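$ ./design --mode recover --in tokens.txt
reading tokens...
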């Protein structure tokens, strides 16, 4: 791990990135109290309960690393704040790419590695600070 980032993300995990426990590929209704969401599949640690969902078109491919409740909460907060930079705006695809490029520059990582799903708790905290920095810059520009 470098700067809180796992440079080689295993999108088919067998070992938990948090506790080293055994990870199984299973139906995500085991997490969501009997209801399936998205692809209907996930990876879950049999030891600590950390989990990660999978892509609908590629149900065996994880969204990133396994996350515990604290990480999931911070990912959600980061996404809410970050998505405001591009969602509902004209040229949203271009704005999204620009926002990710700006965040990657602040975090000093390659843009292709700038993905909330790939971030551990350390990097999520850095990403949150980067988002706040981006918001402050935009406020300054609007003055």
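writing sequence...
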């Amino acid at each position: 791990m470098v700067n809180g980032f796992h440079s080689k993300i295993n999108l088919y995990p067998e070992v938990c990135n948090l506790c080293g426990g055994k990870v199984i590929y299973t139906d995500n209704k085991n997490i969501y109290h009997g209801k399936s969401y998205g692809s209907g599949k996930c990876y879950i640690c049999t030891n600590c309960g950390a989990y990660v969902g999978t892509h609908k078109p590629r149900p065996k491919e994880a969204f990133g690393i396994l996350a515990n409740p604290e990480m999931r909460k911070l990912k959600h907060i980061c996404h809410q704040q970050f998505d405001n930079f591009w969602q509902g705006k004209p040229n949203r695809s271009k704005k999204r790419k620009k926002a990710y490029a700006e965040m990657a520059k602040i975090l000093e990582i390659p843009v292709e590695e700038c993905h909330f799903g790939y971030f551990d708790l350390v990097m999520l905290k850095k990403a949150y600070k980067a988002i706040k920095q981006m918001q402050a810059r935009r406020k300054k520009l609007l003055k």
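exit 0
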